[in-house]
Design a protein that fits this description.
four-stranded antiparallel sheet; 2 helices; globular
């Protein structure tokens, strides 16, 4: 994911609240027992940057590409369950529940058995892989790229390349309705591309009409055919019809969205924002009525999220600088300039140890 283009045009967040390494703070206005909160969390020392998190609800696993491997965690205990080696520039993971295969958005793409974690093959692709989606109707994997080809389509059964799709813009997140339509937000065009899954071609696009810019996250209510486009500038969710693109309304969200989704079990859309460390929950009260149900304080940098469909929980990740003692132990001879829990210049809380330095991977589980 890449929204640096929008950072330069957007007022930076004033700052992130300082959080101790050992705990997380969850706050919500007028909090009640029914509100979402952080119900579980873990920290794992490592190196490398992160992007997407994937929740494999069926196999009870969490996938986080980091450094030169895809880290695998137990979705219930959050303990590390393994790793897929050989990753180069990985961003996300998609799982084909029908074939039992998993794929990384990287070059080459890694393909492995989702149950045993045994690697099956690598697949060379063009472009610059970023987001990734499993399309259930055709049982295909969509590898998204900010460069052409914007989509490389793989067969979920054997990993072969079955085609490519040019969208005329930089795709961020995609959703499938399971009926032959794939919707892909184009961050640099402020549009939602509509793709025919069977024909593997773009059939049109929905313009956000100036209501929101730089869509970085996307949710889809397949029953009522409603799209939720989570935007950077302004920080809003543009809600529109998945049938004709008609804009229904807009609602405010936090700053720095880079992922979102929709939970049909609760009729709620959600967006994770890393710049101010928030999770926005939008309630779909009817096909024409929507409201911001809750804004939950999560953690600085927690910009991507995934849905655990079994427990209706939301999974978020971020990376922060560890205490100096842990950083030195992880990488001898190195020490981060600032320890976690302090403020960096400009009011920004340091996180992640950069793209390659040592850092604590935080996994947050949000639920009731």
């Amino acid at each position: 994911m890449n929204f640096s283009h929008y950072i330069s045009r957007t007022i930076p967040a004033i700052g992130f609240a300082a959080l101790a390494c050992g705990g997380f703070v969850a706050t919500a206005t007028n909090a009640s027992a029914d509100d979402y909160k952080i119900i579980n969390s873990s920290q794992t020392m490592g190196t490398g940057g992160i992007d997407y998190v994937t929740a494999d609800s069926e196999n009870r696993r969490i996938y986080v590409p980091r450094g030169n491997q895809v880290l695998v965690f137990d979705l219930d205990s959050l303990k590390q369950a393994g790793a897929i080696p050989g990753l180069k520039g990985g961003h996300g993971v998609a799982v084909d529940a029908k074939s039992g295969h998993a794929f990384s958005s990287s070059n080459p793409v890694l393909m492995w058995d989702a149950k045993t974690l045994e690697q099956i093959k690598t697949i060379e692709v063009k472009g610059r892989p970023d987001g990734i989606l499993f399309e259930p109707l055709t049982e295909r994997i969509y590898v998204l790229s900010h460069e052409e080809p914007n989509v490389t389509v793989l067969d979920g059964k054997d990993g072969s390349i079955v085609g490519t799709i040019d969208l005329g813009g930089a795709p961020e997140q995609a959703q499938s309705d399971g009926e032959g339509h794939v919707y892909i937000d184009l961050e640099d065009k402020d549009k939602i591309a509509v793709v025919d899954a069977k024909e593997m071609k773009m059939t049109g696009s929905f313009d956000l009409a100036g209501k929101g810019g730089g869509p970085g996250g996307l949710g889809l209510d397949t029953k009522n055919k409603i799209l939720f486009a989570f935007c950077h500038e302004p920080a809003v969710c543009v809600i529109l019809s998945a049938v004709d693109g008609k804009i229904l309304t807009t609602l405010p969200i936090g700053n720095g969205t880079d992922g979102g989704g929709f939970n049909p079990a609760t009729m709620e859309a959600f967006s994770s924002q890393g710049r101010d460390g928030t999770l926005t929950i939008i309630k779909e009260k009817s096909a024409t009525e929507f409201e911001v149900e809750q804004t939950l304080q999560t953690k600085a940098g927690a910009k991507t999220c995934a849905l655990d469909t079994k427990n209706n929980n939301i999974v978020l990740i971020t990376v922060e600088r560890p205490p100096a003692s842990q950083a030195s132990a992880a990488t001898p001879g190195t020490m981060p300039p600032t320890a976690a829990g302090t403020n960096a210049p400009g009011g920004q809380r340091p996180r992640g140890g950069g793209r390659g330095g040592p850092g604590l991977l935080d996994i947050l589980i949000v639920g009731h």
